[in-house]
Amino acid sequence: MPAITHGELIEVSPNVRRITATNASRMTGPGTNSYVVGEKALALVDPGPAEEAHINAILDLCGDKLKWVLVTHTHRDHSPAAKPIAEATGAELIGNIITNDGFQDDSFQNARALDQDDKIETDEFTLRALLSPGHVSNHVCYLVEQDKLLMTGDHVMGGSTVVIIPPAGNMKHYIESLERMLDYDMDYFAPGHGDLIENPHGEIRYLIEHRLKREKKVVTALEKIGPASVTALVPVVYDDVDSVLHGMAAKSLHAHLIKLELDKRASVDNDVWQLL
Hints:
Elements: E1 10-13, E2 16-20, E3 33-37, E4 42-45, H1 52-62, E5 66-70, H2 82-89, E6 92-94, E7 119-121, E8 126-131, E9 140-144, E10 149-153, H3 171-181, E11 188-191, E12 197-198, H4 200-225, H5 230-237, H6 246-262, E13 266-269, E14 272-275
Parallel strand pairs: 4-5, 5-6, 10-11
Antiparallel strand pairs: 1-2, 2-3, 3-4, 7-8, 8-9, 9-10, 11-12, 13-14
Helix pairs in contact: 3-4, 5-6
């Protein structure tokens, strides 16, 4: 697999090249991956953070050939560079916008919205939109059909599972989105953070199984300690996770509890959860 190298253009498939921003962190891994699709008329997926060096590297690469700037979602490590890049090139902004829940990038505006299976088609490639709510409700993945490569944003990440943050994030929708992806022909995932992932259908099945195993731990914890708050449940449900990460784990735990509520298996009263 091609290694993650900041600021350098790396070919990841016949029609797709990757350039990684320098915003490495615990939550972003080695940094946000931006993907350039095509050679003639270019599409840019996930322009990334508004880092001057990253923006300039993309502009130097794409020039006046850039026609479309697409985002998987509007979290601040994925979309802020979209506006300056579009203004510099005249490229069309594409992506779905939601009300800001405290985590969204308000600079991403006036974009063409997407429905399931919307496509950009050129002589070189077909780019298909797969709506993938879960990590956040406006999330979209993009399939380069000729390369059988799916750019997954934060729906699937290299090296870790994604955090689901209610209310814009929804665990039930996340699992349903993964299940829908099994219907598509893919050879690789190109995630928003980390390197290419082989055997995407196997990865999907693993992620679904992993989330459902965690859900079982939530149910077992509620059976064991009775009605409880998210705070009380976290160290029990995530006893296999470093306590330093329990703050973020609490958000995904909340998402699991909401899924159980939607499935009519749990209820909440004054932030205290219990099984039905």
